[in-house]
Amino acid sequence: GYKGLRFKISPTGFKHTGLFPEQASNWDFMANKIKESKRDDLRILNLFAYTGGATMACSKAGAKEVVHVDASKGMIQWAKENMQLSNLQDHTIRFIVDDCIKFVKREQRRGRKYDGIVMDPPSYGRGPNGELWKLEEELFPLIQECMKILSDDALFFIVNCYTTGFSCSTLNEALSRSIQKEKGGHIECGENLLPVTTNNSVLPCGIFGRWTND
Questions:
Q1: Cross-strand pairs, 206
Q2: Strand bridging mode 156-161 / 201-212
Q3: Does the predicted TM-score (pTM) go above 0.85?
Q4: Residues 70-92 pLDDT 10s
Q5: Which of 133, 70, 76, 91 is nearest to 4 (CA)?
Q6: Is residue 32 part of a domain?
Q7: Residue 15 falls within a domain, yes or no?
Q8: DSSP string, 40-51
Q9: Which residues are 193's β-sheet partners?
Q10: Per-residue pLDDT tens digits for 18-33
């Protein structure tokens, strides 16, 4: 449980438990932005959405619609379970099994816009039809494509990265040369940290980059 949200935790064959708790700081960040906006028309897009921690946080905070996209049918089903556990089944959450880049380009053709985008792209992976993904090659083009579906008064754009050797400076450059160059606003990059209560320390768990319109 976390601030009214509940998640299914279960070991997997690839050493995951179904949740990345260090992402709670991003959940809080997005939830606060949504609540502070006092808007009832917000549409949020979660790409590489996994089991839906960010999806549930944004929906509970008051987003009108959250679109949850992941290439894995199993992860989509897990996210639906988390929706039920968090009592959000009456909220508007769209679960879509798809290659994230192809989905973004289709949304461009449909003319759909989003007021916030969050993504957690893998270091390496394949889409549902075998599409190859390498973060070092694909992240910057993906950010540029996502900018085309950001609304003019979007609240945030967040990228999480767990790729070894991909630094905060690199992520900062990617965001500053794309979204900040076009839309202005503010960029913050840093490490995702997990508190270790037994010895009062923190465990670094990847990096994040956030753009906001203020």
A1: none
A2: antiparallel
A3: yes
A4: 989 999 999 999 999 999 999 99
A5: 91
A6: no
A7: no
A8: S--EEEEES-TT
A9: 204
A10: 999 999 999 999 999 9
What string of pLDDT tens digits covers the 214 residues of the chain?
999 999 999 988 888 899 999 999 999 999 999 999 999 999 999 999 999 999 999 999 999 999 999 989 999 999 999 999 999 999 999 999 998 999 999 999 999 999 999 999 988 877 667 777 788 888 999 999 999 999 999 999 999 999 888 899 999 999 999 999 999 999 999 999 999 999 999 999 999 999 999 8
Residue 152 inside a domain? The answer is yes
Task: Name the amino acid, one letter, at 140.
Answer: F
Q: How many domains does the chain have?
A: 1
Structural domain harbouring 108: 40-212
Q: Are 206 and 192 in contact (CB under 8 A)?
A: yes
Q: Does a structural domain hold residue 25? A: no
What CATH number did the domain enclosing 103 receive? 3.40.50.150
Instruction: List phi, psi (to 5°) of 18.
Output: 95, 5
3-state secondary structure 53-115: HHHHHHHHHCCCEEEEEECCHHHHHHHHHHHHHCCCCCCCEEEEECCHHHHHHHHHHHCCCEC
Number of H-type helices and E-type strands within the chain: 7, 9
Q: Which amino acid is at 132?
A: L
Give 152-198 as a DSSP string. TT--EEEEEE--TT--HHHHHHHHIIIIIHHH--EEEEEEEEEEETT
Pull the structure tokens for residue 51. 């089991």
